[in-house]
Input
Amino acid sequence: MQKSKFTRNRSNSCNNTSSSDLQIDPKIRSHSLSLPTSNASSIRNKNSETEKHRIKNNVTINKRSKNPIVKIIHSFKRTEDVDLETGETKLKSELNGFSLQMIAIGGSIGTGLLLGSGKSLSEGGAVPLLLGYILVATFIYCMCQALGELSVAMPVTGSFTKYSVMLIDKSWGFAMGWNYCLQWLILLPMELVAASMTIKFWPVIADYLPDYMVITIFYAMIICMNLLSVKYYGLFEVIFSLLKVVAIVIFLIVGLFIDIGVIGDERIGFKYWKDPGIFSGNGFNGFIGVVVTAAFSFSGSELVGITASESRNPDKEVPKAIKQVFWRICGFYLFSLFIVGLLVPFTHPNLVGDHKSDVNASPFVLALTNTKNNAFANIMNVVILISILSVGNSSIYASSRTLIALSENKQAPSLLNYIDKKKRPLIAIAISISFGSLAYISVLSPTGSEIMFLWLMSISGISVLCTYGTITLCHIRFRKALRLNDISYKEELPFCSQIGLTGSWYGLVVSIVIAISQIYIAITPVNGHFAIADFFQKVLGLLVISIFYFVHKIYLYARYGEFQLLVDLKTVDMKFGRFANDQIRQEFREKFQQERIIMNQKPWYIKTYNVWC
Output
């Protein structure tokens, strides 16, 4: 009897298959998504019974044993906190707005900027390095705005991987979900390989600690951090990100002083822009290489959307994080790369990808060696090691949450949705952690670290472009779906993209053009000598996405006789969550109107700050 009642309530909350593809987390604070009034009483009773059972169960365990080992073992058991609206276990909402910003900043300021930018400088030169990152920054801004609107409207575990299924196509959603998951899964071994490369800046330590030992040490630390709850993940990211931000600010100041001659033996100025020059001689191929590496460097900016379902108040915190994170990341990237271009020539033998030295150092470290001692360079190298821990930490977080979304979408085994009593997606985390073992492949060859790092970075770079292009396409189709359902985004969404559909179309076109250009330079290498290894290094990310897409498309046709290129938006039911019924929609409209009236009464500088920050 109880079972049938639960089933009836669940069916009321999910009107049809289209809307059920996207399950909204009901734990959202601040005018959270409401249940239909007819079900409210029964759901409250069930929540009360579940809470009593959970408390009783925990008290029993606490009384049974005070042994911390027993408690730790007990914490790995499946949680009994079930979402009675969706029938799924829930992640914990423990991330505040500051944590969201730090997670996105921490995920973005990593080896892509601090180490991978050396490859960009070597391939393109100082000016193409800067122009490539500026181009990608404009693209990232459009993506962030689109993702901010989507995440506030539909804050779900898995974010845009679920949006793709609902708004674009099941097969494309499947391909992008696994693409994004693999993008983060391979990031962990890449970070571990980067750690072994970074240590080599100190020859004494490198002689004492072989590569496999460095990998093992960092691997163990990242595993330990991810076995804690999401609250501690946010805490670690705040600490790591603050350290990186402070280090980048110090680098900008010290680097400027080195360039103008306040620190060091000579005034460098624009010396290296004259000799060897500002262009590496690789032309268009070199510039596209810079752009792809830049896309990889900016990866992590989308983590604000991924963490929305675990935010305490996504309506307020996600828009603020989206806007502030972009400006901070761009500021750090563009100013620091300008300084790097002044202090490090693109012909430096220790740059990653130059293949002229056994030591592959960060251009940020090389820039600080132009002093009487290497104190600043040593400090920056320590910061790079900290950033490796930070991004490795984020890689497990993002990939495990994406695995959960794939499981909820029936695109991965349901076992991946196992969430323990500490609200950790335990099996998904275990799979994410296991990919780190791929880093040990790099120790098989003396140059294995650099080769593996460049391969993984190239694959991730093109995957990131496809991911961000998909987000902008989701936004374009989301607006159309709202229009078909007679929903006004201006009146009913707490945050709307400031550049609207124009920005999303720009972002989509840029991502497509860069992807096509990547295929072009893979076929026509700069030296004129086609190499199959270089070809696959540049296009493997696109091939992986294509395989996922076509295999899933064939499966749907063979199993269900289903074939469509795009979801018919007329069949997408948006009547869920904040759009569930007229009463809820009216409440949101009144709330937003009141907030706008209050904001219009503020001084002009506060209104300006609110728009951009």
Q: What stands out?
A: Strands lie at 82-83, 88-89. The chain is about 70% helix and 0% strand. The CA atoms of residues 82 and 89 lie 4 Å apart.
